[in-house]
Amino acid sequence: MWNLHTTHLFTCFKHLTLEPSFGIDNIFNKVDRRIDSPTRKYALYSPGRMLVVGLKIKIK
Predict the structure, then answer these.
(1) Interior angle at CA 54, CA 31 and CA 7, nearest 5
(2) Distance in Å from the first CA to the final CA of the chain
(3) Per-residue pLDDT tens for 2-16?
């Protein structure tokens, strides 16, 4: 399974910092078929491609 994530840091004002993050989980849309396998603890419980977006705001 391939994931791609990036985070950037922007200082907007003297006391404000913004940190947006973007990512894609399961880029190639892999479906895990190991339901009754001994390696089940590593199985994908939500198959499909997912977009992940976040924003962290820091006030100094």
Answers:
(1) 90
(2) 38
(3) 899 999 999 998 899
